[in-house]
Hints:
Layout: E1 12-19, H1 23-37, E2 44-51, H2 59-64, E3 71-75, H3 82-91, E4 97-101, E5 105-106, H4 112-121, E6 125-133, E7 143-144, H5 149-154, H6 160-174, E8 180-181, E9 184-185, E10 189-193, H7 194-199, H8 212-222, E11 226-237, H9 247-265, H10 268-291, H11 297-312
Parallel strand pairs: 1-2, 1-4, 2-3, 6-11
Antiparallel strand pairs: 4-10, 5-11, 6-10, 7-9, 8-11
Amino acid sequence: MNSSNIQNKTIVLSIIIINYNLSKEVEDCLNSLLKTLNSQKEFQFEIIIVDNNSPDKKLPETEKKFNQDKIKFYYLDENVGFGKGCNYGFTKAAGNYLCFLNPDTIIREDIFSPIINLFAKDKTIGIIGPKQQVRNPFFDFSAGFYPNIFFEFFNLFGVGVFFEGFLVHLITRIKKNKVLKVDWILGASIFIKAELFNKINGFDKDYFMFSEEVDLCKRVSNNGFKIVYYPQYSIHHIGSVSGKKDYTLYTIRTYSSKYIYISKHYKFLYKLLMKSMLYFQLFSQIIIWTILFPINKQKSKQKLNAFFYLLTHKMKLN
């Protein structure tokens, strides 16, 4: 797809990045963004960084290195989570296209012009996501399917997410990296028109971290728009940088967010079945991580703490 299809300078892309203790990753991400964006002439852009009250207080040092009008830094008084942080960034955005981008990403090619062109070409598209390169070549976690009994059964053994990633990888190979309609796009790099994002009231405030992009895609789909994966273009995504610092909180957030999603989007018997599967997973994971304890004591201890917390608090974070 040719970037010359973009007509004029009235197109503005707002890139919104949420930071929490990842100032070095923000710096690397910004350098890669500027290297790509400054070389294109087809559209205007702005970069908005929202700091979620990071305890390390290092982002101001990064800000000093990027003293230019196209990059704006905002500092929140509390950690409001990913979705609310993105919503705040949107209130500061002037673009008619939005890109929500994780700080632990590196842009090595122009993914922006082709994606904006794809929006212009197909008005039925609501959300677009590029391929997110990871080290393992056999799994693709860039997109996926709505939570269902099939994958949740495999998650009893801790492999559901990998099976889903392998299926996405297989389908994209079969389709030869062509544009693919999917259920959701991973929030580490997600594009949406500002008008549509505003119409659906942005990210759901009930999610703190995880599953908010699945919820967003579901609501966009419910409004009659397609969710598409564009694997021909890619970014480098390190992945789970914050999560690896605290496996307890990471695990609690993962399960509690999925519980919220199930509560919001499923009804009656299927909702009961899906919630039951989550509880079965907690018990199965307790067994698995107890067995793994001698191999990795620190991670196992944090995981087990999370599972027992979720059981005693009925999947609620607080």
